[in-house]
Amino acid sequence: MKGKEHFQHLTDLMLGLTVLGKEKVTPLVKELIEKGTVEKKHLEKLLQQLSEKGEEGKKELEEKISELVKKVASKIGYVTREEFNSLKEELNKLKDEVEKLKNK
Fold first, then answer.
1. Are 19 and 29 in contact (CB under 8 A)?
2. I want to staple 50 with a disulfide (CB 3.0 to 4.6 A). Which of 17, 83, 99, 103 is the partner?
3. Where are the domains positioned within the chain?
4. How many C-beta atoms surround the C-beta of residue 32 within 10 A?
């Protein structure tokens, strides 16, 4: 395999792992090993490292999306679940106090 093709396969492998996950990239890894493009031990190590980086990237992306959703919700006036529950609790306390006052 030519150097450019080899580089393209590795690039595809990295991109695939990032986007698709380990399960979908494994067949590509097996193909590269069978063709003798890369030694098995090196490719397995790379696959593990990419998998870890992919998980880190996924967590980062989830955190960024969560923060963005919170900012947008705040700007348009939506209350968070936490705020809602707090208000609900306060309302229930007030209802209890009103009932106590009625019964006096």
1. no
2. 17
3. 3-102
4. 20
Which whole-number Å values give the CA distances from 4 to 1, 8, 26, 28, in the listed order?
Answer: 8, 6, 21, 17
Q: What is the largest CA-CA distance in the chain?
A: 91
Q: How far apart are CA 90 and CA 96, in angstroms?
A: 10
Residue by residue, pLDDT tens for the chain (104 residues) are 455 565 556 566 666 656 556 666 667 767 777 777 666 677 677 777 777 777 777 778 788 888 888 888 788 888 888 899 999 999 999 999 999 998 87
Structure-token pair, residue 78:
């939506």
How many Cβ atoms from other residues are within 10 Å of residue 29's Cβ? 19
